[in-house]
């Protein structure tokens, strides 16, 4: 048996001998620092939860007879804080879960199902308390080969685990990043991969690489000149393999650069076998688009990241770069790239400068923005590839799924088609807005609530598991005689939230904010610049997560969706800001503008 510590950069599963095998991709820490490793775990079994109807033993017998699972366990779990009997039903393969789900629902002794829609690899991470981009300890047998893995890669270790990994270190790690960008010949405007060749491939890394690969530019020092487009692509592939990067970034690379590179490589007969397992570039469906993925090499499309984290009029590379760094980058009109290429003069030199500048600018954006996403990966516990493509609400939901598992709480199901449609028709009034008074104002004072909505969720215990309904049947929440002193009652709608016990989501948000406060305190005390920067990234990630959670109550696809909770939050928010404005007026401050969680005032002691 061998032991290794590895940074987990990627995860998936394959089928071997009709059973699922988890594959953990990563880099070794320690004696063989940076060497590639794939750890294989065939011990984890897919499952779902069943809420039995009536007699538990009879329900077990019916499931065993009709469904034929590999085994069933009886256990007690919490459902909206109420302890219930559950059956944990195990299957041989993840694909059996959706196949057997509907059959289970049709059984008369099955009341409901839970957690049947959690992807197998995410289930593995949650149940084993593993965090991608952190260090885990693995133990098992080193093997020379395994199906689905190209054993010709001599720098790769393959380990068959005899038990699940153990988290060793979840601290921030340093990663090597490669930025790339294609320039394409386009005499007819939008390029066509069937006939328009790639003319330049720019590459820049945080390890010191800064170059453009092209068939021209012999006299430019940062240009690697090759004889053909095929050789250009082959050189780019070799660059990636030789340097064994952790992360590759592009700008709109999901939609343009990687699809175009794939199409041209196929035409020219170049194998894009960039995966750690020897696999080629692939595309996975993510939302409404395809995402380019390379096994073991994390691809991040920064265009998608910036769309989610910045509010701009447009999201071109030039616009984003200017917003982040206050500088204008080199620009060439997109429809004239072919003209610059054909010029063979100053315009061609400018095109090379533009290509390199695109790549360097993309790298700078990555170095500025990826630390927060890496920290969110560390906190949320889902793969970095997925985190960079998730909406902030999805990040919050997966964080809650993990926290629910930690406290033995089952996760609510995603809405069905009918439920989703009904939710879409529910419209909540937002925060209070006072339109700005026209004119030039001086000596303004800003009043701002710190984390207003998260604070309200915590202080008013706004959570669906402690919300009172008149038809509630849970004795632990509702008695025959309601004492309103035991409840927080929202303004306007008069929703009632029990003061005790603490709701699930308020508890989670409270822990997030407490951790952020602890980190900010440590940041103030630290005298080390690097430590301060890392702590600042951590507190920013936690702030983003906490601020996201207040809005997800009203998100129609959210597992813990509650229209009542969404309404209560904004109602209390409107009440708070109006009360604060009235309080300020009592001291001579007159509000001239207000929006959701803050307002601007000017001092007018004589105003009626």
**Distance between the ends:** 82 Å
Determine the strand fraction and express it as a percent band: 15-25%
Mean pLDDT over all positions: 91
> From the alpha-carbon coordinates, what is the Rg to the nearest angstrom?
28 Å
Oligomeric state of this protein? single chain
**Anisotropy-based shape:** globular
Could you characterize what this model shows?
This protein is of the alpha+beta class. The chain has 16 helices and 24 strands. Strands 14-13-12-11-15-18 form a six-stranded mixed sheet, sandwiched between helices. Strands 1-2-3-9-8 form a five-stranded mixed β-barrel. The protein has a four-stranded antiparallel sheet with strand order 5-6-4-7, covered by helices on one side. The protein is globular, with a radius of gyration of 28 Å. The model is unreliable at 471-478 (pLDDT under 50).
Topology:
Layout: E1 2-16, E2 19-29, E3 36-41, E4 47-52, H1 56-66, E5 71-79, E6 82-90, H2 96-105, E7 110-114, H3 120-127, E8 135-143, E9 156-161, E10 166-169, E11 177-184, E12 198-205, E13 210-214, E14 223-225, H4 229-243, E15 247-250, H5 253-268, E16 282-286, E17 289-293, E18 298-301, H6 302-309, H7 317-325, H8 337-343, H9 346-380, H10 384-387, H11 392-406, H12 417-424, E19 433-434, E20 444-448, H13 452-459, E21 487-489, E22 496-498, H14 504-525, H15 529-552, H16 563-585, E23 589-595, E24 598-603
Parallel strand pairs: 3-9, 11-15, 13-14, 15-18
Antiparallel strand pairs: 1-2, 1-8, 2-3, 4-6, 4-7, 5-6, 8-9, 8-10, 11-12, 12-13, 16-17, 19-23, 20-24, 21-22, 23-24
Helix pairs in contact: 7-9, 8-9, 9-15, 11-15, 13-14, 13-16, 14-15
């Amino acid at each position: 048996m061998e032991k290794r510590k590895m940074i987990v950069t990627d995860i998936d599963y394959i089928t071997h001998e009709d059973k699922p095998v988890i594959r953990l991709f990563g880099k070794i820490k320690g004696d063989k620092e940076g060497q590639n490793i794939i750890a294989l775990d065939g011990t984890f079994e897919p499952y779902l939860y069943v809420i039995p109807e009536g007699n538990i033993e009879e329900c077990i017998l019916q499931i065993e007879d009709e469904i034929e699972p590999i085994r069933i366990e009886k256990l007690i779990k919490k459902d909206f804080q109420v302890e219930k009997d559950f059956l944990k039903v195990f299957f041989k393969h993840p694909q059996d879960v959706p196949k057997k789900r509907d059959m289970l629902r049709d059984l008369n002794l099955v009341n409901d199902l839970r957690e049947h829609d959690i992807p197998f690899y995410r289930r593995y991470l949650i149940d084993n308390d593993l965090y991608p981009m952190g260090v885990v300890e693995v133990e098992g047998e080193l093997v020379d080969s395994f199906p689905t893995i190209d054993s010709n890669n001599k720098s790769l270790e393959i380990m068959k685990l005899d038990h699940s990994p153990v988290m060793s270190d979840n601290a921030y790690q340093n990663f090597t990043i490669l930025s790339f960008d294609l320039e394409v010949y386009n005499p007819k405007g939008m390029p066509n991969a069937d006939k328009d060749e790639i003319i330049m491939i720019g590459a820049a890394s945080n390890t010191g690489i800064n170059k453009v690969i092209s068939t021209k530019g012999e006299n430019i020092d940062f240009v690697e000149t090759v004889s053909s487009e095929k050789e250009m692509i082959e050189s780019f592939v070799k660059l990636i393999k030789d340097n064994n990067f952790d992360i590759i970034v592009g700008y709109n690379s999901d939609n343009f650069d990687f699809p175009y590179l794939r199409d041209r490589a196929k035409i020219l007969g170049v194998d894009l076998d960039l995966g750690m397992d020897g696999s080629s570039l692939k595309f996975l469906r993510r939302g409404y688009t395809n995402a380019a993925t390379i096994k073991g090499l994390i691809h991040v499309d920064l265009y998608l990241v910036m769309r989610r984290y910045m509010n701009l009029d447009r999201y071109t590379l030039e616009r984003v770069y200017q917003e982040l760094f206050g500088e204008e980058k080199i620009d060439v009109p997109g429809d004239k790239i072919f003209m610059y290429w054909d010029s063979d003069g100053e315009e061609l030199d400018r095109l090379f400068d533009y290509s390199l500048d695109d790549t360097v600018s993309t790298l700078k954006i990555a170095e500025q923005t990826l630390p927060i996403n890496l920290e969110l990966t560390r906190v949320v516990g889902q793969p970095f590839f997925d985190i960079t493509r998730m909406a902030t609400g999805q990040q919050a939901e997966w964080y809650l799924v993990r926290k629910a598992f930690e406290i033995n709480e089952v996760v609510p199901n995603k809405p069905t088609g009918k439920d989703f449609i009904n939710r879409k028709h529910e419209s909540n009034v937002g925060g209070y807005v006072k339109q700005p008074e026209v004119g030039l104002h001086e000596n303004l004072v800003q009043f701002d609530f710190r984390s207003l909505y998260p604070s309200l969720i915590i202080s008013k215990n706004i959570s669906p598991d402690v919300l009172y309904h008149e038809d509630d049947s849970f004795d632990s929440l509702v008695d025959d005689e309601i004492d309103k002193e035991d409840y927080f009652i929202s303004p306007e709608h008069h929703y009632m939230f029990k003061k005790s016990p603490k709701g699930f989501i308020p508890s989670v948000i409270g822990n997030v904010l407490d951790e952020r406060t602890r980190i900010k305190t440590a940041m103030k005390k630290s005298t080390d610049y690097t430590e301060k920067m890392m702590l600042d990234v951590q507190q920013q990630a936690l702030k983003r997560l906490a601020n996201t959670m207040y809005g997800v109550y009203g998100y129609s696809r959210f597992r813990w969706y509650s229209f009542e909770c969404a309404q209560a939050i904004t109602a209390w928010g409107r009440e708070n800001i109006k009360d604060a404005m009235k309080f300020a007026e009592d001291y001579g401050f007159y509000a001239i503008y207000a929006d959701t969680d803050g307002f601007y005032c000017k001092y007018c002691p004589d105003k009626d």
